[in-house]
Design brief:
Number of strands: 0
Shape: globular
Distance between the termini: 36 Å
Number of helices: 3
Radius of gyration: 13 Å
Order of helices and strands: HHH
Oligomer: single chain
Strand content: under 5%
Length: about 80
């Protein structure tokens, strides 16, 4: 059950990151919108978790940094 949850979280992460990118490209959201950063944070966190779980360290570290950058962006809104 744990494995299925982690895999689902990873898929959510991929969808969230691609959605955030797509919305920027097509102009339906701007980087000044907190939801853009929330999608990036939660998406990168999903990829981080599944990557560490599968011991794929390069994408895990990359997305961990991505998560931290998104967290800093969100905190700047508060």
């Amino acid at each position: 059950m744990k494995s299925k949850f982690i895999t689902a979280f990873g898929w959510y992460g991929a969808i969230a990151l691609l959605s955030a990118y797509g919305m920027i490209v097509f102009g339906s959201i701007t980087t000044n919108n907190i939801w853009y950063h929330v999608l990036n944070l939660s998406g990168a966190l999903g990829i981080t978790v599944v990557s560490f779980y599968k011991r794929a360290y390069p994408p895990a570290v990359l997305n961990l940094v991505y998560t931290l950058v998104a967290l800093i962006a969100i905190l700047s809104f508060l």
